[in-house]
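Course exercise 7: structure representation. Students receive a sequence record and must write out the corresponding structure in C-alpha cell form. The form below is the worked example handed out in class, using Methyl-accepting chemotaxis sensory transducer (568 residues). Read each field label carefully; the graders check that inputs and outputs are placed in the correct fields and that the protein name is recorded exactly as given.

STUDENT ID: A-19
EXERCISE PROTEIN: Methyl-accepting chemotaxis sensory transducer
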Amino acid sequence: MFGLFRHINVSTKLLLSSLASLVALLAVGIMGGISLANMDAQLQRMYSGNVLGIEKAGDAERAVRRIAVASADYVLADPADRSSVRQDIQNYDADFAKAIEEYLPIIVRPQERDIINRLRQAYGGYMQAVNQLVAAQNSDLAMQVLHQQVTPKRTEVNNVIAELVQSNAQMAEDIKKEADAMYRRVQFTFVIVIVAGVGLSLGLNLLVSRTITKPLALVTAAAGRVAEGDLRGETVTVNTRDEIGRLTDSFNQMAGNLKSLLRQIADAAESVASASEEMSAGTEQSSQAVAEVSQASQELAAGAGLQSRKVQDTMASTEEFSAAIQQIASTAQQVAAAAQVTSRRAEDGDQAMRRAGAEMDKITTSSREISGMINELGNRSQAIGQIVDLISGIANQTNLLALNAAIEAARVGEHGRGFAVVADEVRKLAEQSGQAAQDIADLIRQVQEDTSKAVEAMESNAQVVESGWRVITEGAGAFQQIKEDVNSVSRQIQEVSRSTEELAKGSEEIVNAITAIGEIAQHVSEASQSVAAGAEEQSASIEELASSAEFLANLGQQLQQAVLKFKL
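STUDENT ANSWER:
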C-alpha cells in the first residue's frame, strides 16, 4: 500500500490528505446529525408520550377537582343557584371526558391503557356519587353524600390519576436514561471518529510530508554539491514516480549532461591547446618554408641576372663568330678572284681558323655554363616546387585544424562563438596560403617549361657549335692542303664558300637561341620577383596565423581553468 502511495502524484497525495480530513469531518457531522435526530425523536417521544400525557392527566385531575368544588358549592348554594352549579358540573364532566379522549391516542404501553380503564371506572363511581349529591332533597343528605361518597370516590380517582402521572413520569425517566445512554454512545463514537479522523489525516500528512521532504532534501543536497562545483557524487535515487521522482530524474539527467558537457569542454580545451601547439609548429614550419622560398627566389633572381650577363657575353661572342664567318666568306671570294695570292694568305687563313677555333671554344664553354645554369635553374624550380607542396600541405593541415576548431566551437555553443570566428579567420588564412602556394606552383611550372625550352635550345646550340667546330677543323685542313697543294685551291673554294654559308646560318640560329635564352632569363627574373612578393605575403599571413594560434592557446587555457573549478 505504501509502495503504491509513493508512486501517486503529489497533487493526488495532497488531495487524498485533504479528503481524509474532509471525510473525518463529514463523518463527525453525519453522526452528529443522526444523534441529534435520535435525540429529537426521543424528545418528541417524551413530549407526545409523557409530557402531553401528564398534561392531559392534569386536565383530568383539574376537572375532577372542579367537580368536587362545584359539588361542595352545590350543597351550600341556594336552591335558585343550584341549576347553574349543575351546569358547571356538566361542563367539568365534559372537560374530563375530553382530556381522556385526547389521552387515548398517545398511549404507548399497555399498562397505561389499564390505568385509563381503571380511571374511567373510578370516575364513573365518582360521578354516580356526584349525581346522588345533586339528587339529594336537602342539604343534610347532600352533605352526607359529599362526605361519605363523593370525597372517597374523588380520592380514588385522584389516586388513579396520580398513578397515571407516575407512569408517565417513569416513562419520561426511562426515556431520559435512554437519551443519556445515547448521548454517551454518541460522545464515545464522536471521540472514536475524531481520533480516527485526526489519526488518518495526521498519518496521511506525515506520509505525504515524508514522500515529499525526504526526496527534496536529497535533491537539495545534490544541488548544493553541484552549485559548489562537485559533480563526483552519485545520482539521487528516489523510488517514486510522482512529480518529485520526475524532478529527481530531471535533476540527475541535468547533472549528467552538465558533467558530460564539462568533460567535453575539458576535452575541447585540451584539443584547442594541442591544436594551437600544432598550429604554432605549423606556422614555424611555414615561416621556415617561406624563408627558404624567399632565399630560393633571391638565388633564382641572382641566377637569372648571371644568366642574363652570360647571354650578353655569348651574344658578343656570337657576333664575333658571325663576323669571322663573314670574313671567311670574303676571304673565299678573294681566293676565288686571286688564286695566286692564296699561298701567302694560306698562313693568314690558318691563323684565322685558329682564332675561330678559340672563339668556338669560348662559345662551347659559354654554352656549357649556360646549360649548367639552366639545369641549376631547373633544380631550383624543383626545390621551389617541393617547398610550394610543403606550403600547400601546411595550408591544408591548417584548414583541417580550423575546421576541427569550428566543430569544437559549435559543440561548445554560445561560449565558443568567438572561438568559431577565430577558426573561420584561420580557415581563410589557410585558403589564402593555399591559393598563394598554387600561384607559386603555376609560376614554377612556367619556369620549368621555359627552362626545358632553354635546355633544348642549348642542346641545339651545342650541336651547331659542334658543327662549327667540325667546319673549322675542315677549314684548317683545307688551309693545310692549300699550303701543300695550291693547285687544289680552286676546287676547295666552292666547298669553303658553301661551308661559310652554313656557318652563317648556324650563327644566325645561335643568335636567335641566345636571344630566346635572354628572354627566358628575363621571365625567370620576373618570376623570381613574383615569388619573392608571394613569399612576403605568405610571411604576413603566417604572422597572422601565429597570432591566431596564440589566441587559441590562451582561449584553451581559459577553458581549462574554467573546467578546473568543477570536480568531475
